[in-house]
Automatic annotation (TrEMBL):
Pfam families: Cyclase (PF04199)
Source organism of this protein record: Paraburkholderia tagetis
PANTHER family assigned to the protein according to its UniProt record, in alphabetical order: CYCLASE (PTHR34861:SF10), PTHR34861
GO biological process, one term: L-tryptophan catabolic process to kynurenine
Protein name: Cyclase family protein
InterPro entries noted in UniProt: KFase/CYL (IPR007325), KFase_sf (IPR037175)
Amino acid sequence: MSNESKEKMVPDMAELLANSPKNWGKWGSEDEVGCLNYLTQEEALRGIAAVKQGKTFTLQVKMGDPSGDPIWPGRREAQRLNVLDRGHFMCGCGPRFPGNMEYADDMMVIYLQGSSQYDALGHVWYDEQLYNGFDASTTIGGMKRASVLPLAERGVVGRGVLIDMARYRNKESLDKGETFTHVDLMNAAKAQGCEIQKRDVLLIRTGWLGRFYSSDHAEFYKDFIEPGLTYSPELVEWFATMEIPNLVTDTIANEVTIDPVSGVALPLHNALMRNLGVAFTEIIALDALAADCAADGQWTFLYTAAPLKVVGGTGAPVNPIVIK
Ligand code: UVW
């Protein structure tokens, strides 16, 4: 079969998701934070009630790591540039201050989606409409609707639950293109001795980022297809019924890159984020947290995060903090 006819068999996103549920209008026509609306004061207190030991974890991967940053193909790694350092003062070109203080300064060139980050709800779309029906032309020249700013201003505080799919399958890491479903998540939770509850922030470890750091980067990116959740109408329904506010994973794009059934790229970005308003958090370091949860048997905790307040941003870096 020619490539052209193979491509013709892949449906449009609009066709695939024709009957997929939407939360548009549920929180008003101006809403830009979607399922974060589920994180009420009661949910913050439920998260706090999950704190049992006072152990803390930060979940951002290093940014501008000289050994490389994991990024979606086509993006560039963060570059940190020194603007001012001792060298400038040694050659007499540093600024002078009364009292002769010296200081170092630097800047960074980053893809806002090129590190641990929150996607803006308007980050992806089809049929010329973003989350909540905003017109896709509002993305031109900087996002005027459903940017990352409202997510950043609201912040995310709730009960988190970590599902370790790699451990559940007795693997260091899931394989390229390996998939799992919401039923697998529930079975893994049971095996861990915990439960995914309504309105939990859902963290899923695949071990995939570990591969980036431990293996040859060319091998990591070869025939790029990440492991992850795979689309089905039942899975979308489950997210909707469970009122999951936020999906957090240790992969670059939170879902298997190409849906193996339809051949469509990133359908869950559209079914969950664009249609339901689930916040997506990607490139998150979960290995240390997972090792600790496996050791003490506590897989639930207080999850807190707020991306940077980038005006018009399609996403923004974040360093979530978990307290067990
Ligand atoms: C894309 O933008 C394609 O993916 P992500 O949401 O992972 O940044």
